[in-house]
Amino acid sequence: MAITSILRYLRLKIIVTLLRCVVRWRQGPFLIPPAPLRRKLVQIPSREAGRVIDAWLYYPDDPALINWHGSGFVFPSLSIDHEYCSQIAQKAGIFVLDADYRKSPEHPYPAPVEDVEDVLAWVGEQSTFIDASRLAVSGFSAGAVLAFVAASVLRSSYPKLNIRAALGVYPGTDLATDPQTRIIPAPVQPIPPKVLDIFLTRTRR
């Protein structure tokens, strides 16, 4: 059984590494954002000693929006939402925290949710510059799933935070159904079931 688990992990590691290389090659220019209005890298303490969660803080003013990027739960794509975060920070005049989270297969579920919890806990302690009573969350794809988790099942655990809005862009709303059994009427370039299987089913412990 242990050998089977190791071989399964190595297989996923090789597939995800190749996929990451392809994505970085195709989206490379988008992952290197131009100079924003105002942006600084912050490191949020995690529950694990010696490990931090990277996040870009876009500002000028409170209240705040926390954003989680899309990744299929496997791609290291922090900063891919740079233009979105910059526009929100500039046009709405609010803080935007674009937070990272751990990815599979190195860190399967519940690792990303734990990082969301640590980010929420950190935001709740930043009362000197973030108004936690006026907070929104957003995300794209896998990040949208995490945003909805933050706004629903996790919100009661953080009484200092008042999450007033949640925005999800193409979220995965069904992570339980086997991707091989899904039927999409008139699909427009759907994600192949085998790829969905890597993104969703196999990212769990």
UniProtKB/TrEMBL annotation:
<dbReference type="GO" id="GO:0016787">
    <property type="term" value="F:hydrolase activity"/>
</dbReference>
<dbReference type="Pfam" id="PF07859">
    <property type="entry name" value="Abhydrolase_3"/>
</dbReference>
<dbReference type="InterPro" id="IPR029058">
    <property type="entry name" value="AB_hydrolase_fold"/>
</dbReference>
<dbReference type="InterPro" id="IPR013094">
    <property type="entry name" value="AB_hydrolase_3"/>
</dbReference>
<dbReference type="InterPro" id="IPR050466">
    <property type="entry name" value="Carboxylest/Gibb_receptor"/>
</dbReference>
<feature type="domain" description="Alpha/beta hydrolase fold-3">
    <location>
        <begin position="66"/>
        <end position="180"/>
    </location>
</feature>
<protein>
    <recommendedName>
        <fullName>Alpha/beta hydrolase fold-3 domain-containing protein</fullName>
    </recommendedName>
</protein>
